[in-house]
Amino acid sequence: MLEIKGITSGYGDLKVIHDFSMFLDKGEIACIIGPNGSGKSTLLKTIVGIVKPKKGKIVFDGKDITGLEPHEVLRKGICLLPQGRSAFPMMTVLENLQMGAYITEQRKKVQERQKEVYDLFPILYERRKDIACKLSGGEIAMLCIARALMSQPKIMLLDEPSLGLAPKVTKEVYQKIVDINSNGTSMLIVEQNLRKVLSIAYNAYVLISGRKTYGGRCEALLSDDRLKSVYLGDLKDESEK
Predict the structure, then answer these.
(1) pTM (2 decimals)?
(2) CA atoms within 13 A of residue 88's CA, in its CB half-sphere
(3) How, if at all, do strands 14-24 and 63-64 pair?
């Protein structure tokens, strides 16, 4: 479904990602892990067109989307959930969800999607009239995921979905991610919580200083002590906190 071929990208003359390649199959969960500052967020921004690649190609559903503007990538079916859970604080839960469906022109489809989202996140239905700044951290995390779903993405890119969440809330958020994936949405997740993300992902890509140092099955990465020592030994696992 998604293939990244030799992408180099960055900001101005600064190259952050160097010759990175990967693929994501339909219905798959894959993860990108690595230390802070390794370029993980820049890679996601490059995929959705916020950062323009200097070299390489991005192919989605067999079509070249390299260099498209973010709104064009969104309409193709790729949605980015950025780090930091950026809900609109003075809008209600319902208004936040409606913002996520701005590319959908038919009101009936928006309402249908809204119902599906409420079925998946019952707490959001209960709090639909509340403004977002009154929600808890976990509820805001759920709201941002739900808002992203309103655009009916084929692929969701999630940047640190567990950041700042208590372990119990992290567990709930990850269960929702699995539920969404089981309905057919592919996932590419950037995450510092190694134990959690590697437990649900199929393939893992390790990014160190903007370069891919490992790409393959999570199972192989976790079962081989040598690979774990080389690729995970220096990485911070937030689940240990």
Answers:
(1) 0.88
(2) 13
(3) unpaired
What is the rounded CA–CA span in Å between residue 186 and residue 26? 6
With tokens 């779903």, the residue in question is: 149
d(CA 204, CA 1): 16
Phi-psi region of 136 (alpha: psi -120 to 50; beta: other; left: phi over 0): beta
Helices then strands, each counted (H, E), the chain: 10, 10
Report residue 206 as tokens: 């390790």
CA distance 160 to 82: 8
Q: State the DSSP string of 121-172.
A: -HHHHHTTTSBGGGS-HHHHHHHHHHHHHTT--SEEEEE-TTTT--HHHHHH
- The DSSP bridge partners found for residue 64 are 59
Of 38, 45, 8, the closest CA to residue 208 belongs to 38
Walking along the chain (241 residues) 10 residues at a time, the average pLDDT comes out as: 95 94 96 91 96 96 94 94 85 93 79 91 94 92 93 94 90 94 95 89 93 89 74 52 39
Tokens 């079962």 belong to residue: 223
Element (H, E) at 32: strand 29-33
